[in-house]
Amino acid sequence: MRLVSVTLILIAVLAGAMAQPALANDSTAELGAGGLVYVTTDDVAMTSEDLFISMDEVRVRYQFENKSDKDVTTLVAFPMPDIKGDIDFMDSIPVDDPANFLGFKTTVDGAPVTAKLQQRVSALGVDQTALIQSLGVPLAPQLEATRAALDKLPREQWDRLINLGLAAVDTFDAGKGWESHLAPMWVLSTAYYWEQTFPAKRTITVEHSYKPSVGSTAGVSFSTPESRKEPWFQDYVRKYCIEKSFLAAADKAAAGRAENDFLMEHRIEYILRTGANWAGPISKFHLVVDKGSPKNLVSFCGDGVKKTGPTTFEMTKEDFYPEGDFDVLILAGAGLEK
C-alpha cells in the first residue's frame, strides 16, 4: 500500500511573459497535450516544510518565497497516489469518493482553494483514458460501479480490454455455481491542480490535509526467526530503519496476546523527494510522527529524532535536500491499541 505524499506542480507564467515554473513536495508542472508535465524553477524556493504524519491524518504546511522581482503565476498540482486495479482489490481507500479518495483539502494564506481534477487511466505504460471513457466505464478501479459497467460490455470488448492489459477475468463460485466477471487491472493516476500567483519578493503559505492510505497486514510479517533471514526482510530493515531494540519490543508485545488481539503492521509512505525540485534545499524541515497510542510501536528513518510526547516523535533539519521518500512502520493491536 502506498500512501501518500504531497507534491505540488506548477506551470509558471511571469506577468505578461513565459517563465520557468516551480517544483517541490509541492511541485511545478506544465499542462501538456498528454496532461500535467512536471517542471522545475529557479524563481520559487521552499523556505520551510512542516509535516505531520499519523494513521488518521497527514498535514503539511509549506512556505514558498518568490525570489525574483516579478510575480510568478503558475499551475500548482497535487498528484495523489496511483490506484492499481486488481482481481482481489485490497488497497486501503480512506474516503468513499471516486475522485477525492484521500479527502484532500488545501488553503493558500488561509483561504480555501478550489482545484481542478485530472485523471488518467493507463495499462502496460499506455494511456487508455479515452478508450475507457468511450465505453462509459468509470475510471476508478476500486468502485463496484466500475466492475458492474465492465460486466455489461459485449464479449468482444472483454477480449479487447484483456488483450490491452486493462482487465482480467475473475472466476469464482459464490454458492450459485461458477460465474465470470471482468475486473479492472489498469492504473488510475489523479492530480488536483490550480493556478497560483507567487508575488515578487514575498512568501506565501500553502497548507494541505488529507487521510493517508494506510497499508495493513494482519499479523507481523517478520514475527519468526526464519522470516528475519529472508532477503525481503533486509529491504524492510533498510526501508524502516528497523533496529534490534524494535524487534525485541515487537516480540515482547506479541507474546501472550489473546487470539483475536494479534499485532498488525500499518505502513505509511510519504513521497518526500519532490521537495528537491524547488530552487535550492528546503531551508527548514520539521517532521512530527504520531504513532497513535503509547502502546503502539513505531520505526522510521531519521537523524536526531526526539521523543516529544507519549505518542509523538520529532525531527528538524536545516538546508534539507530530500533524496528519497519517507516510510513509517507502526505495530498495533488488531483493534488499534488505546
TrEMBL record:
InterPro entries: DUF4424. Residues 24-329 form the DUF4424 domain. Keywords: Signal. The keyword Signal applies. Residues 1-24 form the signal peptide. It holds the Pfam family DUF4424. The keyword Signal applies. This is DUF4424 domain-containing protein.
